[in-house]
Amino acid sequence: MAGKDDIAGLTKEEVSIKLPDTWPTEEDLKDDTVKYRTLQDDTFLRFYLSNDPFVYPMRHSIRGNVLVINNETFMKLPHRTGTEHDCNKIRAVFSQLGFSVIIYNNLTCSEMKKTLDRESKNDYSNHDCFIMFIMSHGDQGVVLGTDGKTENGIEDLSIKVKEIKRSFLENKSLVGKPKLFFFQACQGSQLDKGQSPNDESCTESNFKTGETLIQSEQSETTRNDAINSSSEMTDSEETPNGSTIPTDSDTYLSTATVEGYVSWRNLFWGTWYIQAIVYIFRNFACKHDLNELMTAVTNLVSKMETAKGQFKQVPQNNTTLRKKFYLFPLIHEPCAEQYDNEKRRREKLEIEIKKRDEMIASQKKQIDKEKEQRQSLENELKIRDECIVNVYHCPSIRLLSHGDQQYRSKSFFL
Fold it and tell me: Region labeled Disordered — which residues (predicted)?
């Protein structure tokens, strides 16, 4: 089953994700062109069309919606300068991946709740999946609206992550479809100093954040503020006969950092987490499933450290996906149907070409035979020419020419 392993027919180089030795260059971060496999890549097309039961179907030309809530300007907290770069990258990359990107900027807590309630009740019957990005200040298990947090007066104005996820799990048109939730927000206030690995095969990263890309003190990364919340729990409902699926199935929830810790953002190119996602998806979504992509994201983010303090960050991923989730860039059902039609036309042309080749081969044999007969005639002609020459040089019959008067030899009258 192709879905359980790497795509059959791909080389070892094709199924491995090669990350840069350091953080991607400034040029790489600016590039937002998605790589894809062409329709001529028969291996990938056959895999797409195989209806593998261990792979989520992606049949629509518009895969679904990518809902983005991007909070930058806050009333009581520092502004999240640099988040606009994350937002622009998400729009550019996921549009190329076949999604309708819907962006809401600077929502208060009540506005976020209204927006999420409205979006969670939409009809997604004609969509293959649903994806959400929320980028804001936050803490363990919660995200803040732009009016959030007061501290001593309490009033935090936050929304629990599990409540956001639960609202979309209740949408019947999304049952059995992958639902992806990405949260770029702090999960606490602790700073991760990192630790030296005992495994000799591991090496400690020694490159910096913004200073590596932009030589300026202003490129120093900044962290989000936070509040407190309880941990997340989920329930499932399942019957032995498999006629239903668990309530919390088919979800992928990813946070920029682990519980209790801050996440990091660069003023000039955005957050480590979002920039890693768009970089990995842009380059490797054409070959790898979501779990492999997000493992690479985790790897890439964990290589980073701040210029001051050498603080680290590692994302946290929680999945209940029951199948492999491939994005299949630029490949969809109408495209596949067109491919099948073109392939059938090509097969007909191949048959016609084969017939022509057979006719040419047959004609070639006839031509070769005609050539042999012609050569035979030429040989006979040559013999006739030799005979004529021999007759011409016969001493008994020779015509002598001398001026304007001709004479016959004496032997002619003997």
Answer: 210-250
Q: Using one digit for the tens of pLDDT, what is the confidence trace for 164-188?
A: 999 999 999 999 999 999 999 999 8
pTM of this structure:
0.71
Q: How far apart are CA 48 and CA 57, in angstroms?
A: 8
Just list the catalytic residues: 137, 186
pLDDT tier at 215, thresholds 50, 70, 90? very low
